[in-house]
From TrEMBL:
<feature type="binding site">
    <location>
        <position position="115"/>
    </location>
    <ligand>
        <name>Mg(2+)</name>
    </ligand>
</feature>
<dbReference type="Pfam" id="PF03737">
    <property type="entry name" value="RraA-like"/>
</dbReference>
<keyword id="KW-0460">Magnesium</keyword>
<keyword id="KW-0808">Transferase</keyword>
<feature type="binding site">
    <location>
        <begin position="92"/>
        <end position="95"/>
    </location>
    <ligand>
        <name>substrate</name>
    </ligand>
</feature>
<dbReference type="GO" id="GO:0032259">
    <property type="term" value="P:methylation"/>
</dbReference>
<dbReference type="InterPro" id="IPR005493">
    <property type="entry name" value="RraA/RraA-like"/>
</dbReference>
<feature type="binding site">
    <location>
        <position position="114"/>
    </location>
    <ligand>
        <name>substrate</name>
    </ligand>
</feature>
<dbReference type="InterPro" id="IPR036704">
    <property type="entry name" value="RraA/RraA-like_sf"/>
</dbReference>
<keyword id="KW-0489">Methyltransferase</keyword>
<dbReference type="GO" id="GO:0046872">
    <property type="term" value="F:metal ion binding"/>
</dbReference>
<protein>
    <submittedName>
        <fullName>Dimethylmenaquinone methyltransferase</fullName>
    </submittedName>
</protein>
<keyword id="KW-0479">Metal-binding</keyword>
<dbReference type="GO" id="GO:0008168">
    <property type="term" value="F:methyltransferase activity"/>
</dbReference>
Length: 216
């Protein structure tokens, strides 16, 4: 339990601020290797997650860790499940209903899911590597609630997960406030740039790329 208490708290208003910025801006602002493999994407358009991570590992074709995690994860968490890129139906409508009852707000899985229509209808945000009708066994639970490397990004309990149509980023809890503030500054700069573009400026001018105009 010490790893949970050691994590810095996320800013109180992090979810609203992250939704205004989006995953791409936060990634660029972070300066960190926090981007998850882009093959892990939303199963329905418009899904959004901004929540503290609860990481776990499933053996290939085995979802016992998920069932255990739903009893242990703090309310408000997103499950971050490493299934070693193995595509099977680790998650479906039943686990979605269980997650909603447990206060789990989303799923990011390096593996597969099923019951897409039902999950979409419920509006539960799921980001997965693939979709599969194949079921899973329940025989082993390699890791639950401990830090892991997830599809290219390190993740510890309490880290900030932001996922949307652009992809998934996982920002260390201790870097969350700095990253959000940097993201807001970046967004303000881009808003000013777009205003100037609408008034006739060019990207070559605004980005200092005028030399390429002469070469063309």
């Amino acid at each position: 339990m010490s790893q949970h208490s050691a994590q810095p708290a996320l800013p109180a208003d992090f979810a609203e601020r992250c939704q205004a910025l989006g995953s791409s801006t936060l990634y660029e602002a972070s300066g960190l290797p926090c981007a998850v493999d882009p093959q892990i994407s939303s199963i329905w358009s418009g899904a959004f997650i901004a929540a503290p991570a609860y990481p776990l590992v499933c053996s290939p074709g085995d979802n016992l860790s998920i069932h255990i995690a739903l009893e242990r994860a703090p309310r408000g968490s997103v499950l971050v499940v490493d299934a070693s890129s193995f595509i099977a139906g680790y998650w479906g409508e039943v686990l979605t209903v269980a997650a909603e009852a447990a206060g789990v707000v989303g799923l990011v899985i390096n593996g597969g899911v099923r019951d897409i229509a039902a999950i979409t209808k419920r509006g539960f945000p799921v980001f997965a590597r693939g979709v599969s009708v194949r079921g899973t066994v329940k025989a082993s639970a390699p890791s639950i609630g401990s830090p892991i490397l997830f599809a290219g990004a390190p993740v510890a309990p309490g880290d900030l997960v932001v996922a949307d149509d652009d992809g998934v980023v996982i920002i260390p809890a201790g870097e969350a406030e700095r990253t959000i503030v940097a993201g807001e500054a970046r967004a303000a700069k881009e808003a000013e740039m777009m205003k100037q573009l609408a008034n006739g400026a060019t990207t070559l001018e605004l980005m200092g790329l005028g030399v390429w105009r002469e070469k063309a």
